[in-house]
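fyi for ur records
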Amino acid sequence: MKRHLTTVLLASLALLNLATESVPKIYMCPECGCASDAVVFGKPGNCPSCGMVLVEAKDRHEVEMRAMQPVASLHFPEGKKSVTFPFELIANGIYLPMRVNGKGPFAFELDTGSFNSIVASELAVEMGIQTTGTTTGSGAGSGSFVAGKIKELSFEFPEGVTASTRAGTSVSMAGLWPLIARRMYGDIGHDVIQYCVVQIDYEKKLLTLHDPASYHYNGKAQAIPFTLWGSYDPQIDGEVIVDGETPIPVKFTLDTGAGGTAITTPLVEAHHLREKVGKVLPAFDNGAGGGEAKLVTARLAALRIGPYRINQPLVALTNDTQGSFASKTLGVNLGANILKRFTVIIDYSRKQLILEPNAHLEDSFKADASGLVLKAGADNFRVFTVRALVPDSPATEAGIQPGDRLTAIDGDPLDNYALWQVQELLQKAGTSCQLSVERGDKRFTATLNLRSLL
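which gave:
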């Protein structure tokens, strides 16, 4: 009897302990369309894949059920396995006319470097799109930014391809508008484009979306296997080549949303690239959420990407200590100044990248030839002010000063141009141009004898 009572007492104590012992909390990533959506984390923090702040889960069943229900979907028109339509190439970005929740079209950028699709908060307010809570993200030049979570988004591409996602977010895009002198209203990211084979013909400015189930590549280019950085961004092997140095093995991370190519801070520091590349020029890069990265532009001997050697490319060397460019694993952010020399085919289902060279593969990379670092202001983003000057450059020799406003080049009013187009006008090394300048209430003309500064 004593033995039986002792057993009952011990069992009761065990039940009491179970009842009073706290159940360990578990956490999960807010839905973003990445593989991390199905991962359970034992403590709070940020998702190691997409960087979003982890949220507490009710139980493991909640995570398992989410994994069974895709966060996004994409559908082709009946009877079609692929569709092709034109895009605008603006400052090397791919812009599409997208309908959002049945309204539009609005200018959206195709961005392989975004883990989810984004609607500009400016458009969300205009359309009355409600957000349900907030999360954080990271981008160029920012440690993090606050994003509103959108419960349901629907998109319609040209030619009738439709998509929906529960991973959408709302972030301010206003910091990106000055470069292109127009309002762009969002990104189409990995959560949506992972469901198709994406073919970008930069030369013809045509985008083709293929159904992966029926897609077969018939070309002659080599298929390059990739892994997914952060569970969303294609990443391939390659090399950075600096004159007089052993080639540096690196990872190239594909980013169609980036106009240029950037080498992240850990790589720059580990290989002392600032000291080895020679002359550099100041530059700035803006990201979603209002972040600004302070960079320098340099010319390398070459980059090796798959089977291709890209000679004398211009790249940005970053020094960010926060944000995506501070990542130890991102490597080289491969942007469209290089990608546009190819037809780019991204096959997410087979994890392979195909680069077909076009007629521009061996075009030279033109550097600034003026020494002017400009910013665009006013409501139309077409008022150009001198932000900074490169020492001993055509601009300083012509007497230009920070704060001067440029109004025309060779008599052509600059209110006809976006900032990126003005920058291209100032790359014509070996020529001269007449700048119309305003300084306070004074107006004068300055002659710039343009020469390549890199």
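The longest helix spans residues 2-20. thats all i got for now
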